[in-house]
Amino acid sequence: MTLRIGVDLGGTKTEIIVLDESGRERLRRREPTPRHDDAGRDYEAKLGLIADLVQEAQSELAAELNGALPTVGIGTPGTISAATGRIKNSNSTSLIGRPFKEDIERRLGREVRVANDANCFALSEAADGAAAGAGVVFGVILGTGVGGGIVVHGRALDGVNGIAGEWGHNPLPLPEAADLPLPRCYCGRAGCIETYLSGPALERDHARSCVGNNGEPLDVKNELLNAKHELLGAAAIAARAETGDVACEATLARYEQRLARSLATVINLLDPDVIVLGGGLSNLGRLYGNVPRLWAAQVFSDRVDTRLVRNRHGDSSGVRGAAWLWPLA
Prior knowledge:
single chain, alpha/beta, Nucleotidyltransferase, domain 5, 2 domains, 5-stranded mixed sheet, 11 helices, 12 strands, 36% helix, 18% strand, globular
């Protein structure tokens, strides 16, 4: 039996899945991703976690494998540079500049296919997910970071520079007063879409609005924040907005406006049939009605038929796409 292993190396969780020839799930595990430390020890810890998960999966399915090695595909933040063979553009900064593919292949003793996690997500949803049958799909991850992947007629696009779909490090379109000053991004720029639309960005924006710190780094106001306000996560902000909390509702309205402006630019450039949202913030059900109503003002068309949909495979869609990086023989 041919089995495929997919691994999704995320900012907060690492997941493994095993699929058979028909795409049926045979095994799935999820573990916390080792946290970043300044000494870089988390990089080795991430390699070790992936190797352990693969070995455990093989042991559990040893009878079905009958001595054969399953294929392994891995979705990671960032992409592999064609010039150096090392990871670039990753919001998991311990991966940047590392020969990740070479290192994990050495640990596993076989060839491994590695792709951007957003490309894996988009590929999964275009194949048998929420965008199945669509010609052009833009997959969006709104989580620890902000990623994007493009699939055209069933094929994920990498691009000559390996950055196709990387909308998160374009500047936020048409900044308004509430968007200023432009936040600094780990990539060295300021005002990146990721600094407004990631989960942590939403939480920071709400905290700033509560303490009135006018865009200063949040740690400057921690004492005031801890004394007077609870630091809310995205799910709590959404829940309180539903009960009529004015500050939380205002935070989500700012978020929706920023998301609409950003996706309108994608529609103007790519004109996709479907935009699929993934990541933790894709669970905000209000986005699917509110954002399309807002983006029409910036789309260069008399009507907008692009659909904004929630992913079908949940936050495991990326790991399924990683498994399918190896096509059927």
